[in-house]
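Structure in, sequence out. Go:
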């Protein structure tokens, strides 16, 4: 296997494969979203991305298309066939034939991929299977950041058994998320809220605190052009089961009940538990840490449900708990074009001692910024050794 020998055509086709991979982020769980392009000489004869819920894989979709292409059907194979894929082709054939074996059957001469699959069933084995059949494999060292973006949730879960966590916040210009009385509709404008639909679709699950449910009665579903996308998992943190769960609650009305999970403390009211289960919701009891539900335990339970990307939609107390414990991978903030009172609701509560010096607070790396009409969207990520 080589990591060099890439020409401009290879680099361009890998870029197309990445664009295909981006399409599936949040839709292919528990599998990663992969993009694949197949070239016969310099002609693209097949393209694919991982299908909804993870199967068939991108390579299989591209192979299926390529086998119907007239060049593949009629040629006497004058040109070489190269498979460009964002992730190492899988080696395991427990539920469907392995992509590595199917690529051999298909007759490819070369495979160019961006990242070795961390899944132990494939890691390095996909390449070995291909190479033992005489196929030239190239692990291309290009587009690292773009590639990691397409599989951030999958990599996090494989490494830590916890999902990639995005905190999503809508705030006023002066960092307030609602009035003192708790009104927050609507701090951001229509265009920002449309973008939030896309952000939801790019995640596998949404998490909110009990007070947000009590004060906003949010739907948390996918709407408009996103309405046909499979429903996301929903997690509610409600230690004391203070939400009056009923069919009238919008989260229950607008989402599949079996995908709603309520996290609560151990030993809580048995009657309430019975009522929640009767409604068809899932209930998960976890321990407490410093008087609050243990976020680390919650994230591990969410990881066990094979959730790759989790969108935390508030409110302040919940975001603060995630910040305090350093359990976040990005913060997505929409600043609406309004200014609220100084006593209105802050984005975060205190999470470090009040006498902490500026240098003691976290600093983040700006990854993205865009305006939506009069609003601004910014994405920040923690600064790590790699960044
Ligand atoms: N602008 C925005 O983007 C936005 C988004 C969402 C909400 N909001 C606003 O925010 C307000 C609600 O925020 P909030 O801070 O009052 O409440 P919250 O964060 O929605 O919920 C807090 C409650 O969640 C429960 N909880 C369980 N485990 C927790 C943990 N580990 N850490 C923290 N809380 C935990 C606690 O109640 P138990 O102990 O009883 O379980 C806690 O009181 C609403 O007014 C809403 O309109 C604004």
């Amino acid at each position: 296997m080589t990591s060099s020998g890439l020409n401009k055509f290879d680099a361009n086709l890998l870029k197309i494969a990445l664009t295909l991979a981006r399409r599936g982020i949040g839709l292919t769980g528990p599998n990663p979203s992969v993009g694949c392009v197949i070239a016969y000489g310099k002609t693209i004869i097949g393209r694919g991305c991982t299908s909804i819920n993870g199967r068939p894989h991108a390579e299989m979709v591209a192979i299926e298309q390529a086998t119907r292409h007239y060049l593949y059907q009629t040629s006497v194979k004058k040109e070489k066939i190269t498979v460009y894929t964002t992730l190492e082709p899988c080696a395991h054939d427990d539920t469907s034939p392995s992509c590595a074996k199917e690529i051999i059957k298909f007759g490819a001469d070369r495979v160019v991929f961006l990242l070795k699959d961390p899944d132990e069933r494939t890691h390095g084995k996909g390449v070995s299977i291909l190479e033992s059949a005489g196929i030239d494999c190239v692990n291309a060292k290009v587009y690292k950041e773009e590639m990691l973006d397409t599989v951030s949730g999958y990599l996090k879960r494989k490494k830590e058994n916890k999902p990639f966590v995005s905190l999503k916040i809508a705030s006023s210009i002066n960092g307030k998320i609602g009035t003192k009385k708790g009104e927050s509709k609507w701090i951001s404008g229509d265009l920002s809220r449309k973008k939030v639909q896309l952000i939801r679709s790019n995640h596998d699950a949404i998490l909110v605190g009990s007070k947000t449910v009590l004060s906003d009665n949010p739907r948390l579903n996918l709407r408009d052009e996103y309405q046909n996308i499979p429903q996301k998992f929903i997690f509610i943190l409600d230690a004391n089961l203070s939400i009056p769960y009923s069919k009238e609650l919008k989260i229950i009305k607008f989402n599949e009940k079996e995908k709603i999970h309520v996290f609560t403390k151990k030993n809580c009211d048995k009657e309430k538990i019975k009522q929640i289960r009767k409604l068809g919701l899932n209930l998960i009891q976890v321990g407490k840490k410093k008087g609050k539900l243990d976020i680390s335990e919650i994230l591990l339970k969410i990881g066990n449900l094979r959730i790759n990307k989790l969108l935390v939609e508030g409110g302040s107390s919940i975001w603060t708990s995630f910040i305090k414990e350093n359990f976040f991978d990005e913060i997505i903030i929409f600043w609406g074009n309004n200014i609220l009172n100084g006593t209105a609701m802050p984005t975060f509560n205190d999470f470090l001692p009040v006498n902490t010096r500026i240098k003691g607070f976290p600093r983040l790396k700006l990854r993205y910024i865009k305006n939506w009409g009069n609003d601004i969207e910014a994405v920040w990520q923690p600064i790590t050794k790699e960044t």
